[in-house]
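Need tokens for this chain, all 234 residues.
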Amino acid sequence: MFRCSALALASVALLGCHRAEPPAAAGFDASVSPLPAPAPSAAHAPGAGLDAGSSPLTTTAPSAAASAASTASLSGVDAGPDPGTLPQTKEKPEASGAAFDARVAALWDAIVKDEPDRAMPFFFPVTAYEQVKGIPNPASDWRRRLVAAYKRDVHALHKRLGEHAADAKFVRADVPQDRARWVEPNEESNTLGYYRVYGTRLAYEIDGKERNLEVTSLISWRGEWYVVHLSGFK
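Here are the structure tokens for all 234 residues:
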């Protein structure tokens, strides 16, 4: 009698193991696709100012390290806290250095791949914009107007490269330092001053022929250049 009962229980247990579904992880909805891999991180860091004896036109090309950072992760140039949370300075930006090169490389990578989010490290930080702009809700203006236009412009520049986008090779960024000027508070609805420069050009080559994309306006924060208008003013 005991042996029959034990055998019956073992059979039920074995049958149950074959019929049961594998246990699901707690909190996981099996009807939802797995999350994609995280996107490359974006970062920026403040750098040194412009030496008074430097040439008016600064030309820079991203270093190999900066180029690698743009396609994988920019965390390597993140040397501290968000610079937008720190006070503004009157330090004139220098269009060179690891941080600047990495931001330029990020913009170029975004244009070539038609992925505007990759270009955000080169865009003026929202935390700095909140300090600079003397308007109601500057963060909303930053997101809805400036960033929206920036992303549209990245898409447009990718289309301009056309079928040659994958073959385009970045050469350098030409920043007309001699045309940079300090914008005083209250000139452009701003409560803080900043340096501004128009007409930066991104030089690239396709089939050995050099061409250019223009960056309309860069402005400074703590001695670093950032894009605020990529193609025109919107």
